[in-house]
Amino acid sequence: MSHARVLCCAVGLLLSLTAAPAVAEEAGWSVVPSAGAGTGRPYVYAEGTPGTVLQDTVSVLNPGARPLTVRLRGADAAAAGRGGPAVRTTGGRAGTGAGTGAWIAFAEERRGHRTAAGTVSVRVPAHTRADVPFSVSVPPGASPGDHPGAIVASAGGRSSAVRIRLRVGGPALSALTVEHVTFGGGRVSYELVNRGNTVLTPRLAVRADGVLGRVLDRPPRTLPVELAPGRRTTLTEPWPDPPALDAVDVRLTVTAAGGARATASTRVRFVPWSAVTGAGCGLAAVAALLVARRRRRRATDDGAGAPARPEEARPEEAGSGAARTEEARSGAARTEAEWTGAVS
Predict the structure, then answer these.
(1) Is the pLDDT of residue 236 over 90?
(2) Tally of structural domains, the chain
């Protein structure tokens, strides 16, 4: 029984050692534009008028020790960053009937005849490079300008793409707009829209003017994005240290090659709400104290101005008062009698 366990462990270790190189070999493949004269190209560039068919080649490199099957297809490409194209599997530009990916075709052998196909599978031997030709058929009604696309290769659970920059002859128009400028969370957010027919690499300048003058002034810099015709992308610009209390007009100016220029602005009010809340609480407390003092003073003034209530006479005082009243009456009678006798 122990021998069987040792044998199983040995077999498992052998399989793991053999499987790891196979995975690494599959992960090591790549697809690139064919070198042609020996100089590497970062992408495939093609130019033609509507109705023409353009041809080029991509190369699939297999450095591993095992054969590799790679599947290739055409695709549209949207806005691309510095890291590579943003591939879209569906959709196209208005007026063309289909995207650039639908214009890309590969030669495929079917029953002894070569036909154009949207996808193709290529078997690449070990330590070998396979050159795969393809064509781009520009529709007769294609609009002038740039039509970015890509060739996507898939194998071993991952995909890689080669960019295609196709330019259709005709008048070129460079135009863009800046939309939906907002501020929040220490960032200025905005949208860029390519309104022309050429691929744009925009440059951004930011300026902010407050009540007492300029609070932000950033010179133009190139953005890490390529904006395809008709595409829209959302970007942000960090602003970690805005003023604590101010009313600011934030203005974005975007330019690109070919004379494209656009501006947009938004108004932002900065208020230190914590300080305002503390001040409000303090004012409320002072107001309450003043109201209480006023009420207390009014009550005191009302008590001092009221007439004194007459005190009730005690019985002794009442009796003496009556005697004094009687004496006064008798004195008055005697005085009157004396005055009468003197007159007579």
Answers:
(1) yes
(2) 2
Query: Any idea what the CATH number is for the domain that residue 231 is in?
Result: 2.60.40.10
Q: Is residue 175 over pLDDT 90?
A: yes
Give, in order, the Cα–Cα distances in Å from 341 to each of 332, 336, 338, 344: 15, 9, 5, 5
Tell which of 168, 202, 234 closes a domain.
168
User: How far is residue 128's CA from residue 122's CA, in Å, rounded to a whole number?
Assistant: 12
Mean pLDDT for 5-31 is: 52
Give, in order, the Cα–Cα distances in Å from 54 to each of 40, 41, 161, 245.
20, 17, 19, 60
Q: What is the mean pLDDT of the chain?
A: 79
DSSP category for residue 196: S
- The rounded distance, in Å, linking the Cα atoms of 68 and 60 is 10
DSSP state of 126: T
Q: Convert 271-291 to b/e letters by CB count within 10 Å (16 or more is b).
A: eeeeeeeeeeeeeeeeeeeee
Tokens of 123: 């078997």
Q: What is the tens place of the pLDDT at every residue in 256-296?
A: 999 999 999 999 999 885 655 655 566 766 676 777 677 77
Check residue 77 and give its pLDDT.
Answer: 83
For the chain, give the number of residues.
Answer: 344
**pLDDT for the residue 90:** 45
Query: Dihedral (C-alpha) 83, 89, 92, 96: value to the nearest 10 degrees?
Result: 120
Yes or no: say if 126 and 67 are a contact pair by the CB < 8 Å rule.
yes
